[in-house]
# Entry
Amino acid sequence: MKLIVYWNIAIKASKKEMERMLQEQRSTSMQGKLLRHNLDSEVVDALKDLRKKLSESEEK
# Structure
């Protein structure tokens, strides 16, 4: 019986952690959209290029 209780607690904790992670991702995504909306297109292009270069350097 105790094992079932512990299992249920672990499942609830996992669900809460997943919800927190999803909320953070949504928040970051929304911030990015708002930022892009307020920036000049040249700045957005430069940031995209920088992100691409950083991603490429991390892969190496």
